[in-house]
Every structure is written in C-alpha cells, then in structure tokens.
C-alpha cells in the first residue's frame, strides 16, 4: 500500500458544479497536511494547508479526518481555471507526495 | 515574490553522458530540494540540502549526486545518464522550519536516448 494515495481521475465536472476528492494516508503519526495545485506542464504551487478544524479559502474547503486517515478538498462553483492536478502532501518525519488527482472543468 | 529558476526547460542527452541541472533561488531560503516527477508516481525526492555544503539523500538518490557551494544554488548531477532517468526534474526551495511550503522551479524535462 502506498503511503499516500489519490484517485488519479480525471474528474470531469461541468462548470459551476461542486467537486470533492480525497487523499488517504497510511501513517497515523502524520502531522501536517497540504494541498498543492499543478497546472498542465507547470510546477506545483501551494494551494492551502489542512488544519485539524478544517479551513476554507474562498471556494475551496480542506478537511482532515484523522480517524479515517484522509484529507479532502472541496471546490464549490467550479471555474474553468480550476482545471489542474491537485497533489496532497503529508508530513511526518518526511514529506510524502501523492501522485495527484486530475480535475477537468468543462464549459 | 519567490523565484526559483532552472537552467534548462528541455534537455536531450545520450546514455552515459554526465548531466548537470542547475537551480537558483533568490529568496535566501535555507532548504533546497531536487525531485523527479513521473506519471502515476508523484514527486519523489532525490536529494535535499538544508545549508551550504550540506546534503541529505532522499528516497531515490542512486545514480545522482548534488552540490551546494552557495546558498542560492543547488545542482543535480547525473554521473552517467541512463534511459530510466528520463523524467521531469523539479527543484524547490523553502525556508528553514517551513519545509512544507515549497516554491518550485519550472522544471527540466530530460530525455535520455
């Protein structure tokens, strides 16, 4: 089992819809969690941190479920510009990167 | 605005060649990282450095070496390139104590023939 797993997708979603995807991790001692966004043929960029209490940044909401060992990212009112691959990062002693979930927003 | 630059966007090399990938950051970051990214595998850490002349092996250091002679520059060296080193190479930097907040360069797509 991989230490960090993501559904590779692609998730094909109509513009304006709400979409959510998860990232599961195997190490229960993991301490910090993050979402990065990577546009096609571009470098990853930090999207948001994931706090125990959850956090929201505009249309984006990130949540942590320690009991089930996953983090989630929810995007409301999706825009064409949200099309990207979303990478989760889980840290304990080291950073572990997920392989990413590809999201395609269709007009 | 943090800027991380990499010496080449695309490189084509032959098997057995020595390959140098250069990375420069302009934000005085202590930490620097080299990753490779392959489809379905995510980012895999090759080497990282937390200070000048310091280096630590990541998950897949075999076939690679690094050099950090100056704080702003972190070089990745493929001693003898092989076809299985064809990949996207990404350099990143971060502040000390904030290793998760990484700023990436645009990447170098390396093809080894």
Can you describe this structure?
Chain A is globular and about 40 Å long. Chain A has no helices and 11 strands. The N and C termini of chain A lie far apart (36 Å). With 107 residues, chain A is mostly beta strands. In chain A, strands 2, 4, 5, 9, 10 and 11 form a 6-stranded mixed β-sheet that branches. A 5-stranded antiparallel β-sheet of chain A has the order 1-3-8-7-6, with no helix packed on it. The mean pLDDT of chain A is 94. Chain B is mostly beta strands and 113 residues long. Chain B has strands spanning 4-6, 10-13, 19-25, 31-38, 42-49, 56-57, 64-70, 73-78, 87-94, 103-104, 108-112. In chain B, a hairpin with a 3-residue loop joins strand 4 (31-38) and strand 5. Chain B is globular. Classes of the chains: A mainly beta (107), B mainly beta (113). The interface between A and B is medium-sized, with 19 and 16 residues.
Strand share of the residues of chain B?
over 45%
Based on DSSP secondary structure assignment, what is the total number of beta strands of chain B?
A: 11
The multimeric state of the shown protein is heterodimer
Distance between the termini of chain B: 37 Å
- Category by helix and strand content of chain B: mainly beta
Q: Compute the CA-based radius of gyration of chain B.
A: 13 Å
Largest interface: A-B, 19 and 16 residues
Structural class of chain A: mainly beta
Assess the beta-strand content of chain A as a share of residues: over 45%
> What string, H for helix and E for strand, traces the elements of chain B in order?
EEEEEEEEEEE
- Percent helix of chain B, as a range, is under 10%
Task: Please tell me how large the radius of gyration of chain A is.
Answer: 13 Å
Give the overall pLDDT of chain A as a whole number: 94
Overall shape of chain A: it is: globular
In DSSP terms (H or I, runs of 4 or more residues), the helix count of chain A works out at: 0
Q: Can you tell me the overall shape of chain B?
A: globular
How far is the N terminus from the C terminus of chain A? Answer: 36 Å
């Amino acid at each position: 089992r991989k230490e960090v797993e993501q559904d590779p997708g692609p998730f094909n979603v109509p513009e304006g819809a709400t979409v959510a995807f998860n990232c599961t991790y195997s190490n229960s001692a993991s301490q910090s969690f993050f979402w990065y966004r990577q546009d096609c043929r571009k470098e990853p960029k930090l999207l948001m941190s994931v706090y125990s209490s959850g956090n929201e940044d505009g249309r984006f909401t990130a949540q942590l479920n320690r009991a089930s060992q996953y983090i989630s990212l929810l995007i409301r009112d999706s825009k064409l510009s949200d099309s990207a691959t979303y990478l989760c990062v889980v840290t304990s002693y080291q950073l572990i990167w997920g392989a990413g979930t590809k999201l395609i927003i269709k007009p | 605005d943090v800027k991380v630059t990499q010496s080449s966007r695309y490189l084509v090399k032959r098997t057995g060649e020595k390959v140098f990938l250069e990375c420069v950051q302009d934000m005085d970051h202590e930490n620097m990282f080299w990753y490779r990214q392959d489809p379905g595998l995510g980012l895999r850490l090759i080497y990282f450095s937390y200070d000048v002349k310091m280096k630590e092996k990541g998950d897949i250091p075999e076939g690679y070496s690094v050099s950090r002679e100056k704080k702003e520059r972190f070089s990745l060296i493929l001693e003898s390139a092989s076809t299985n080193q064809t990949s996207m190479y990404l350099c990143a930097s971060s502040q000390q104590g904030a290793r998760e907040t990484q700023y990436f360069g645009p990447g170098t797509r390396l093809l080894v023939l």
